[in-house]
Amino acid sequence: MKIYTSLDQIIAPLPHACVTIGNFDGVHLGHQQLFSTVNQRARRRRGVGVAVTFEPHPLQVMRPEVGIKLISTYEQKVELIAMAGVEILLALPFTREFAAMDAGSFVDLALVKTLGVRELVVGYDYAFGKGRGGDVEFLKACGRKRDFMVRVIPAFRVDGMVVSSSKIRELVTAGRMKEVSKLLGRYYQLQGVVQRGRQRGSSVLGFPTVNLSLDEKDLCPKYGVYVTQMAHADQCYGGVLNIGYNPTFNDGRLVAETHIFDFNQDIYDQPIKINLLQHLREERRFTSPAELAAQIARDVAKAKEVLAS
Questions:
Q1: What is the pLDDT of residue 47?
Q2: Are 136 and 120 in contact (CB under 8 A)?
Q3: pTM (2 decimals)?
Q4: Least confident among 77-81, 114-118, 266-270
Q5: Which of 232, 244, 225, 236 is nearest to 300 (CA)?
Q6: One of 87, 119, 179, 257 is an active-site residue; which one?
Q7: Contact call for residues 227 and 278 (beta carbons, < 8 A)
Q8: Which among 94, 191, 223, 224 is most buried, taking Cβ atoms within 10 Å?
């Protein structure tokens, strides 16, 4: 996938461009419907499929007090859009100056003049531009005037739920990972670099762990214990993870600690990916390390049952 980060980098309109536009946080199944349609239409026209997105998320700029918690990092979003088969990604820097541009100017400059849009694919509820003036009806009117087709993709539902980024955020914070995976089309994933912890997992509890630091400002799953899969160096390992503040030891910092099954490699300072499959129990304080170790043993046995099934 070719990535552009400004309009100036595109020196000539793209051939028969089929374009979709959105924030695409999480790249969930609804977003994937947009990408699939763009790819199909681009192939039919013998053109290119293009996704236009923004970095950072517009709400982080326009309403920082809201403190929106994102499902995916920018890097995850780019990776997932590439996996969806989109040929070109235009990731535009979002600033207050950019936000002041009216919808018509954005259509003329970005979509028509720069990209040479022939078809535009948007979700049923999409709107952009100053005052969110660029809604579906506005885009259809622009298409009639500027000779491009607008295709509107209806809401995508799973088990009666409309797939949306806001719904997925709600489910993640509730620890409802089975439902999250249905809406994402994959498991919810934590990514990061393995940090050096306090070394209690192996020396005190008998269950060595790999640690990821978490930021409370980011989307954090419900605190507690999860069944996981850890991806590292093209291999996948089962595991059990605790997200929280480790109240038994009064650590006071938010961390994700994963005990990985049948794994004894030194991976400090290396990147890993952890899929969250199922929430097992709440985080709680134990009266002693021995009591905690006994509970971890039960968690491990349950997690292995879940993974086997």
A1: 98
A2: no
A3: 0.92
A4: 266-270
A5: 225
A6: 257
A7: yes
A8: 94
| Three-state helix/strand/coil letters over 137-167 | HHHHHHHHHHCCEEEEECCCEECCEECCHHH
Residue 200 above 70 pLDDT? no
Please state, in angstroms and rounded to a whole number, the distance separating the CA atoms of residues 19 and 54: 14
Residue 204 clears pLDDT 70, i.e. is over it: no
CA–CA distances in Å: residue 117 to residues 92, 154, 176: 16, 21, 40
Whole-angstrom Cα distance, residue 24 to residue 81? Answer: 9
Which structure tokens are listed for 283? 């985080």
Instruction: Give catalytic status of residue 137 as yes or no.
Output: no
Residue 23 has pLDDT above 90, yes or no: yes
CA distances from 244 to 137, 191, 205 (A): 46, 16, 17
Distance CA 24, CA 19 (A): 14
Residue 106: which of 139, 61, 141, 84 has the closest Cα? 139
Q: Which two tokens stand for residue 216?
A: 């409370």
Rounded Cα distance between 182 and 148, Å, is 34
- Strands 210-213 and 255-260, by their bridges, are antiparallel
Q: Are 275 and 215 in contact (CB under 8 A)?
A: no
Neighbours of 291 (CB within 10 A): 12
Cα separation, 21 vs 31, in Å, equals: 10
DSSP per-residue codes, 101-122:
S-HHHHIIIIIIIIT-EEEEEE
What pLDDT score does 198 carry? Answer: 64
SS3 content of the chain, % helix, strand, coil (to 5): 35, 25, 40
Distance CA 207, CA 225 (A): 14
pLDDT digits (tens, 9 = 90+) for 236-250: 999 999 999 887 777
Over residues 65-77, the mean pLDDT reads 93
C-beta of residue 69 within 8 angstroms of C-beta of residue 169: yes
**Residue in this structure with the two tokens 């914070």, named with its chain if needed:** 173
The CA–CA distances, whole Å, from 159 to 30, 162, 163, 198 equal 14, 9, 10, 43
